[in-house]
């Protein structure tokens, strides 16, 4: 596999992320370095990067260089964003970095916005959307059309910049809050009309909005750890903003879900997003766990136009590649599950979404074997829940994890994950789990012995007739034992016979 390191020298935080990948097929994040460099500190008033901030950034770049030597990382794509872009003394940082052997590209506002759109195109199924990326020094608002960049602009509305300019007291005074909101309204007044006229999904990225979403999830005891694809409602954001406005920075550091090093600037970020949603009359925004760094990575990973043909497939394949399973067995289970589904779907009104979930669960059902055979169904469910399956909703990911969890044994039930499911999903879980488990039993010998499968759906019985080059005795024996789950799922008796 190839490796590349992406260095993002942001206005608030600097990061190195390292990816391993097979070009165009699958990838995974393998390491990360992070440092709150605060390059934007004081920039709004002086127009210059402060010496102490420059030293923090150069110290981080020295750490990156040493890390690369220690790990053999040969390719590094390094760039800087808003703070360096707007600082009068940017060369005082860029030149020492160059002497260290790290050539920092200074992204224009348009380039930064374009990278953000690339990340959204690779992380969501949306064809068209608005994309907002709020950093320490600026905010980029972009339009994605046909999964491509269709223009955007940068605004001086970064969390560090606005905190320094407007929020002098701790906690902020009401007049300071209103002045900051007025500043946001002033900058966005030209684009708000278009946002209202085209009420497309609004996708937000960056550490500020991820922290806000995480705080809401913790307060609501949300059962998933995943942030990507979470819908942060305007009501939840407003409630959290009011809570943060009443706390001092020292108290905000202790709010579950918030990074302590963002405690002094998180209020400004919350107010920018709250004002944007209010002015645009939007119900909320979608959280992207992928951002500018990932957009830069996809330029290495995918050929032009640097976006996947199918978002769901890319991230499902990446999980499969991370935890390899026996390919022939997995394909046999997929084929058997598909044939069982096709026979049962008309009678029980199972749709395309159900077929997609079942096939994905069949592909992932044995990922837990990477940990251990014993309880591998439980290990697999954990792995599915921990992976960012971009393009799949939180509900779909929960159902996939549950199907993996119950593909061997147990009474399928949502448990704590019921909070992210929809009405009817408990029944859907039982039916799809019954099909997947039956397919697994019919491939019990892991040898593809069941070559023929006839399914007859009668008035009160579903009869399976199975056969192959040799008698699949153990497969029939295993399948017959799970009639209770099948009957519970479909209200029909299960009969399994050899051809």
Automatic annotation (TrEMBL):
Among Gene3D superfamilies, the record links this protein to: 3.30.420.40, Exopolyphosphatase. Domain 2 (3.30.420.150), Hypothetical protein af1432 (1.10.3210.10)
Give a single Pfam family match. Answer: Ppx-GppA
Q: Where is the signal peptide?
A: none
Ppx/GppA phosphatase C-terminal domain span = 311-465
Q: Which residues form the Ppx/GppA phosphatase N-terminal domain?
A: 18-300
Q: What is its EC number?
A: 3.6.1.11, 3.6.1.40
InterPro entries associated with the record: ATPase_NBD, GppA/Ppx_hydrolase, Ppx_GppA_C, Ppx_GppA_N, PyroPPase_GppA_Ppx
* CDD domains per record: ASKHA_NBD_HpPPX-GppA-like
Q: Which UniProt keywords apply?
A: Hydrolase
Top-level taxon: Bacteria
One molecular function GO term is:
guanosine-5'-triphosphate,3'-diphosphate diphosphatase activity
What the entry lists under PANTHER family is as follows: EXOPOLYPHOSPHATASE (PTHR30005), RETROGRADE REGULATION PROTEIN 2 (PTHR30005:SF0)
What is the name of the protein in this document? Answer: Exopolyphosphatase/guanosine-5'-triphosphate, 3'-diphosphate pyrophosphatase
The record lists the organism as Oceanithermus desulfurans
């Amino acid at each position: 596999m190839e490796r590349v390191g992406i260095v993002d020298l942001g206005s608030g935080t600097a990061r190195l992320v390292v990816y391993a990948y097979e070009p165009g097929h699958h990838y995974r994040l393998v390491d990360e370095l992070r440092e709150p460099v605060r390059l934007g500190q004081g920039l709004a008033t002086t127009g210059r990067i402060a010496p102490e901030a420059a030293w923090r950034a150069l110290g981080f770049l020295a750490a990156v260089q040493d890390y690369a030597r220690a790990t053999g990382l040969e390719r590094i794509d390094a760039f800087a964003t808003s703070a360096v872009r707007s600082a009068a003394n940017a060369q005082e940082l860029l030149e020492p970095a160059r002497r260290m052997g790290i050539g920092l590209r200074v992204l224009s506002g348009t380039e930064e916005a374009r990278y953000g759109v690339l990340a959204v195109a690779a992380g969501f199924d949306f064809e068209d959307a608005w994309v907002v990326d709020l950093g320490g020094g600026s905010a980029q608002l972009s339009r994605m059309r046909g999964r491509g960049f269709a223009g955007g602009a940068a605004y001086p509305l970064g969390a560090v910049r606005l905190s320094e300019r407007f929020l002098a007291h701790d906690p902020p005074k009401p007049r300071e809050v209103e002045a900051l909101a007025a500043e946001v309204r002033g900058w966005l007044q030209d684009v708000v009309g278009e946002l209202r006229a085209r009420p497309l999904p609004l996708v937000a990225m960056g550490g500020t909005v991820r922290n806000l979403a995480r705080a809401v999830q913790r307060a609501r005891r949300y059962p998933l750890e995943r942030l990507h694809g979470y819908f942060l409602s305007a009501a939840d954001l407003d409630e959290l903003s009011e809570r943060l406005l009443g706390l001092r920075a020292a108290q905000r550091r202790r709010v579950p879900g918030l990074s302590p090093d963002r405690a002094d600037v998180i209020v400004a970020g919350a107010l920018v997003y709250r004002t944007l949603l209010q002015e645009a009359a939007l119900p909320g925004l979608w959280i992207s766990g992928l951002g500018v760094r990932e957009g830069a990575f996809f330029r290495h990973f995918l050929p032009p136009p640097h976006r996947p043909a199918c978002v769901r497939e890319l991230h499902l394949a990446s999980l499969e590649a991370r935890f390899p399973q026996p390919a022939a067995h997995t394909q046999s289970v997929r084929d058997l599950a598909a044939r069982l589904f096709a026979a049962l779907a008309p009678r029980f009104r199972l749709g395309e979404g159900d077929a997609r979930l079942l096939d994905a669960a069949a592909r992932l059902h044995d990922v837990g074997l990477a940990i251990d055979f014993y309880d591998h169904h439980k290990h697999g469910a954990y792995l599915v829940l921990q992976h960012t399956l971009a393009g799949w909703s939180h509900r779909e990911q929960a159902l996939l994890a549950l199907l993996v969890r119950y593909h061997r044994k147990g009474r399928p039930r949502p448990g704590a994950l019921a909070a992210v499911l929809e009405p009817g999903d408990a029944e859907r879980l039982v039916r799809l789990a019954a099909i997947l488990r039956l397919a697994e039993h019919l491939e019990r010998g892991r040898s593809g012995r069941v070559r023929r499968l006839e399914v007859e759906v009668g008035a009160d019985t579903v009869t399976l007739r199975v056969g192959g080059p040799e008698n699949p005795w153990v497969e029939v024996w295993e399948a017959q034992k799970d009639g209770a789950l099948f009957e519970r799922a479909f209200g029909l008796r299960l009969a399994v016979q050899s051809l």
